[in-house]
Amino acid sequence: MKLLGLVFILLIASCQDYNSNSADESRYEEISFPPGASAELQASYRIIKDRCFVCHSEWSSYKTDQQWVDAGLVDFGQASNSSLIYRLKNFSPPGDMPTGAYPTMPNSEYQKLLDWVGP
Amino acid sequence: MNKFLFLFFIILPGLAWSYPNYIGHSYTSCLNCHYNPFGNGPVNDYGRAVSATLISARWLYPKTWTEEDLAEKSGFLFRKPKQDWFRTQVNYRRFRLTRNPGGKNQTELWITMQADARAILKFGENDRFIAVFNHGYAPAPMSKVSGVPDEDTWRSREHYVGYKFTPKFGVYAGLMDKVYGVRVVEHIAFSRTFPQVAQNDQTHGVMAHFLNENWEGGVHGFVGNLAQKEDLRMKGGSTMIERTVGGIHRLGFSYLNSSNLYNSLQSYAVHARLNLKEGSSVIAEVGQTSKNITATKEKIDSRYGLLQTYLRPTRGVYVFNNIEYAKADLTDDNYIVRWGPGVQIFPAQRIEFRGDIYNTRVFGPETSVPDSWTLLLQTHLWL
Amino acid sequence: MKLLVTLLSLISFSVFAQSSITVNVTLSPSGSFQATSTKVKGNLKKNGDMIEADKIQVMIESLKTGIELRDEHFAKHLNYGTHPKAVISGLKAQNGKGTAQLEVNGVSKPVSINYELKDGQVKANFKVKASDFKLAKAQYLGVGVEDDVVINVEMPLK
To answer: Are A60 and B146 within 8 A, CB to CB?
Structure first.
């Protein structure tokens, strides 16, 4: 029995533990925003973090409205002039973002981004 | 002879396992062929013999070998075991993944999916007590969310002990797959990814399995993978129950409830495994998951479906077709349909060749996403 | 045209009305298999309201289970070398029930039969215990066979 226990411990200690939950902390953790960050910005940031940071990790520091404007990604009140928005829908070719093997953003999340940026 | 066998192991990759579709051969329960009563993991002596004399063809064997010879040579290193208490298996699986085959953006990857060794200790009448160990190579994950540290490439996917109080009731403890749904071999299937019972989602826990003339089922309480950080471990429980219908088919129901510091997941599903005789079968599963995000109090309901047909035109050959459906968010209009025909060939025991083509299409009123096509060619060897 | 269709259906029926014996075996811990043969010798006859048969027999070696190795084991287990046939004799049946003698492995036992008659085809079944016929408990690499066995017989009524 002691030998079995030792083997168990060795097997647990060794190795890769990647699974369906490995990204839960980074995906669902509490995110701190500067004072004054709107609820719409916070909700949108979480969506963009989940859907976009895998390729656009440089956006992770944009936690104020102004930072998104300065990056040239958002034009508040002008969704059609905000590349963060217009690249998500009916952008053909080369197709909607996220691209490649990553899943399409559901409409419910897209709507939250529209609520933040404005029509 | 030893050098030849060593080279055989190195050069040739592949493995013939048992699958839930073998209900088409009237094997309603996985327990006949597997140490784990819900399937996956190493096959027992009977499973090896079935693999050699029923599943696999005999194209590579001399005609002078009888079926009894094949069964006798189905053991490790082609030998009949000389003792009852120890078994081992080694597996290697490698495939070529081609995205957009024939298209402008065609990409190709060679991936070694698996190279592992398994050891089984078993004692008592009808292997009343078993201990199963697995350790081996696992490739680093291809798709990562930012913030996840780089992963090692060695892991254990199973290590557990089991005790069968009777041949039809046993308790198992250790690292195992969660008891839920149909354990199809396609680990990217929505029926496995949505309820988080995919190829790396084994958990430490205690599982009870029971079986009688009409029913089979299990209850599993688990605490997550102890190799993982505590805040990520999904703790909870699951159950799966199947009813034998018409003596040869199975209908089932599953439920899973688990949570970690960041979210909780509830899943439930119904499934059917239908025996079309002569090795052919149909498998179907429909399920729904509910994920609650702790930090945002958000709730996401998803739904998935799987229809898999397996046809056996001749010994050693299976032609199959997968049709899958997934709606990641029930409040949303978008949904995904994935279609995947393929063929599996077992020219002899211990060798499997498999080819799959997947077409994935996103449906949505305001979505413009080109279809994605993927070609998978796989070889799989075991000893 | 109607005559042609009637004639064709009668011909079809006589061509496809086939005799078969199926042995339904339950495995332990789980699963099942069927050993089936269409090489059944004998006839069912109508005698007033009764259905009778002097002798219905099948060669053990002709029973096929879907796995060649299992066919060999099945036949050996039934001692086909010394007792090559299974025989149902003295069958008398009426109103869905009947009796007969079943001989397997040199042992003869009475059996109770249920049957239905439809379109000239009799479908009968009865349950037996393998141990009643002095057959040893079968097991192969940890998978065994339950003692209770159900036998289905299908034959045209002449």
So the answer is: yes
Kindly state whether B28 is in contact with chain A, defined as any CB-CB distance less than 8 angstroms: no
Q: Which of chain B's residues have a Cβ under 8 Å away from the Cβ of C141?
A: 44-46, 49
Span C18-156: which CATH code?
2.40.128.110
The third-level CATH classification (topology) of the domain covering B13-139+153-382 is: Porin (2.40.160)
- Predicted confidence (pLDDT) per residue in A65-85, tens digit: 999 999 999 999 998 899 999
**pLDDT tens string B103-122:** 887 889 999 988 999 999 99
State whether ipTM is beyond 0.90: no
Q: Give residues 120 to 159 of B whose Cβ lies within 8 Å of A.
A: 131, 133, 135, 138, 140-141, 143-148, 151-156, 159
Q: Could you tell me the residue ranges of all domains in chain A?
A: 37-119
Contact C26 B211 (CB under 8 A): no
Dihedral sign for Cα atoms in the order B75, B76, B82, B85: negative
Please report residues of A whose CB lies closer than 8 A to that of B196: 19-21
Q: Do C72 and B278 touch (CB under 8 A)?
A: no
What is the mean predicted confidence (pLDDT) over C57-72? Answer: 93
Residue of B nearest to A107 (CA): B332
Q: Which of A24, A91, A103 sits opposite B260 (nearest CB)?
A: A24
